[in-house]
Recover the amino acids of this structure.
């Protein structure tokens, strides 16, 4: 990784903690081994993610305990359609990102270079207590990638687990093997962005590589009990071709299994891709059709109003199991064991006897109220 991957800047005080995944180089720099960028840092330099830096000859996390904000969301917004449907999730993120997506839809947070973005402070125990008091069934590490605030996310997840609160990672899956294993010991569910299915797409539009993301998906499927779903933001002319969607969905069925839900969501012009048009709804519908044709049992459209594309159907008899209108649940045709109440076929996922009733509400939260 060249020095262009690092960022100069003053380190904040009071938010710095030591990290584990790094090693010293012979030239006096240190290499961060958290993600496949392998940023090599001189004293005082930050990695591309902006929140991990060389301080005193070691890599530290500079954003521990600070967030860009907290909000109670519907779990379907993550998006997770097969994990405790209808329940509220306490969402938060920090700042920075270890990818450089030109199409980033949260660039004001993920590409922030302003420490003031991290205005809210909270200990892991405070977040867990707030989630419990607010009635949230889970906490989501989202808005930017929790990989880069690895230590903070794990500590929050540990505190949540003690209170029976689940943890949800919303991530691009761009992480090295050892930290990946530690991280997912503490996660209960994940939505992984499978941003495209070609190396060219990843290099040109994200500044990363495809294989580490596939490795994360394979690890989740074959070595963990974490429930996970995938999301692909379809960008006109870049990752929405028949050939690419055919290859992607066939790979998912073969390597991950037909029961892994896939979400195809609409792009809107943003960040460095303002000249690209929004995704037509027909593109999302066609992607869903390709997935279903190739054996994906649960394929969804997102960022558009499409009740048919948002709902869950029994892959055996075709009954609508869970009806959705945006984030509001309508039909519920699963029995207490998560099976179709018409034919008895199990629906893959993590379900309870009854769905939640949170609906589409979005409720900002001030953690200071729970101190």
């Amino acid at each position: 990784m060249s020095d262009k991957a690092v960022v100069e800047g003053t380190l904040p005080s009071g938010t710095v903690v030591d990290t584990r995944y790094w090693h010293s180089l012979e030239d006096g720099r240190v290499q961060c081994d958290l993600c496949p960028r392998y940023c090599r840092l001189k004293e005082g330099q930050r990695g591309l993610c902006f929140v991990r830096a060389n301080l005193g000859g070691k890599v530290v996390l500079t954003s521990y305990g600070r967030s860009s904000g907290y909000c109670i969301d519907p779990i379907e917004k993550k998006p997770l359609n097969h994990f405790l449907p209808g329940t509220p999730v306490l969402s938060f993120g920090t700042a920075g990102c270890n990818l450089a997506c030109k199409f980033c839809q949260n660039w004001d947070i993920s590409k922030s270079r302003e420490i003031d973005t991290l205005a809210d402070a909270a200990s892991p125990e405070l977040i867990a207590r707030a989630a419990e008091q607010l009635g949230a069934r889970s906490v989501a590490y989202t808005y930017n990638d929790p990989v880069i605030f690895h230590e903070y996310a794990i500590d929050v997840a540990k505190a949540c687990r003690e209170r029976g609160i689940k943890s949800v990672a919303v991530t691009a899956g761009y992480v090295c093997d050892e930290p990946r294993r530690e991280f997912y010991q503490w996660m209960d569910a994940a939505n992984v962005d499978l941003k495209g299915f070609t190396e060219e797409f990843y290099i040109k539009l994200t500044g990363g590589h495809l294989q580490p993301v596939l490795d994360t998906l394979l690890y989740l499927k074959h070595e963990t009990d974490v429930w996970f779903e995938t999301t692909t933001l379809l960008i006109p002319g870049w990752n929405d071709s028949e050939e690419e969607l055919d290859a992607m969905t066939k790979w998912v069925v073969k390597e991950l299994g037909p029961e892994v839900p896939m979400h195809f969501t609409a792009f809107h012009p943003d960040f460095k891709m303002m000249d690209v048009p929004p995704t037509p709804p027909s593109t999302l519908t066609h992607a869903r059709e390709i997935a279903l044709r190739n054996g994906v049992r649960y394929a969804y459209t997102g960022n558009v109003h499409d009740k048919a594309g948002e709902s869950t159907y029994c892959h055996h008899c075709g009954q609508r199991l869970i009806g959705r209108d945006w984030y509001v649940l309508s039909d519920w045709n699963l029995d207490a064991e998560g099976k179709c109440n018409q034919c008895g076929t199990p629906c893959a996922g993590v379900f309870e006897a009854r769905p939640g009733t949170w609906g589409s509400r979005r409720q900002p939260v001030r953690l200071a109220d729970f101190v």
In short: The chain has a mean pLDDT of 92. Residues 66-363 form a domain with the TIM Barrel fold (CATH 3.20.20.70). The CA atoms of residues 173 and 213 lie 5 Å apart. The first strand starts at residue 7 and ends at 8.
